[in-house]
Amino acid sequence: MYIPEHFRIRDHADATGFMNANPFAILVSSTNEGPFATHLPLSVHATDERLILRGHVARANPHWRYLEQQPQCLTIFHGPHAFVSAENYTTRETVPTWNYGAVHVYGNARLFNSTDELQSMLHELIATFEPRYAEQWASLSETYRERMLSHIVGFEITATKIEAKFKLSQNRSKEEQANVISSLEQAESSAVSGVARLMREQRLGVKKP
After folding, report:
1. pLDDT at 208
2. What is the largest CA-CA distance in the chain?
3. What is the number of H-type helices and E-type strands within the chain?
4. β-pairing, 43-46 with 34-41?
5. Which of 27, 59, 61, 159 is the most buried (most CB within 10 A)?
6. How far is CA 118 from CA 65, 123, 146, in A?
7. Residue ranges of the alpha helices (H) in 24-173?
8. What are the chain's domains?
9. What is the distance of C-alpha 157 from the center of its chain?
10. Distance from first CA to last CA of the chain, Å, rounded?
11. Is there a contact between 169 and 183 (Cβ–Cβ < 8 Å)?
């Protein structure tokens, strides 16, 4: 990913926080026919030394076979994004742009099909997205649960490289950053107002005392 230095995020906590806040990712693999992508939710497990992503695809989805043949893959986490009007800038000779956040995780995938590992992975996803469903899942018949598990293939991706980019007007003045935030946070779309929130979290538009 092309990352000008003023847009590069080096704080590991910022990158993992972004992934946890935007867990619906794009998994990309190389195949003999070209790139193949799947959109899917993932659980993120991060320490200071290691990052692991876990999820599953439908057994009918050929992506798991591509991971089996070529474990190296790319996972893209994408979050809020917004058009930024040149009206926010104090300088007339300027152009509009687009602000956004993205994290690319390069890594190697390991597939798993065992009931224990699939159950563990599903429990992680349930705890992340709908903890209340855990009781309902546990109450379902063993036959039904086994049938559901037979229709998926689990995977675990161990990261080898992480690239994080927050393009949030860091190259503009504090006044212009504040103008951008004020403009975007008025939007009804969460994709747009989310950029303003991300800018505030990065303490942009705030003059140092």
Report:
1. 53
2. 67
3. 7, 7
4. unpaired
5. 27
6. 17, 9, 10
7. 63-69, 115-129, 133-139, 142-149
8. 5-196 (2.30.110.10)
9. 14
10. 35
11. no
In this structure, the strands spanning 72-84 and 51-58 are unpaired
Give burial (CB, 10 Å; 0-12/13-18/19+) of 53. Answer: buried
Q: Tell the residue number behind the tokens 């300027």, with chain if given.
A: 94
One-letter amino acid for residue 149 of the chain = L
Share above pLDDT 70 across residues of the chain, in percent, rounded to a whole number: 99
Q: Are 29 and 63 in contact (CB under 8 A)?
A: yes
CA distance 79 to 101: 6
What is the secondary structure of 56-84 as a DSSP string? EEETTSTHHHHHHH--EEEEEEEEEEEEE
Tens of pLDDT, residue by residue over 59-99, are 999 999 999 999 999 999 999 999 999 999 998 899 999 99
Length of the chain (residues): 209
For the stretch 10-38, pLDDT in tens is 999 999 999 999 999 999 999 999 999 99
What is the residue type of 193? Answer: S
Q: Which amino acid is at 201?
A: E
Backbone angles phi, psi at 87, to 5 degrees: -65, -20
Task: Dig out the tokens for 182 from the structure.
Answer: 């004020």
In angstroms, what CA-CA distances link 28 with 19, 67, 81, 105?
16, 10, 21, 10
> Model-level pTM?
0.93
Of 154, 166, 161, the C-alpha closest to 73 is 161
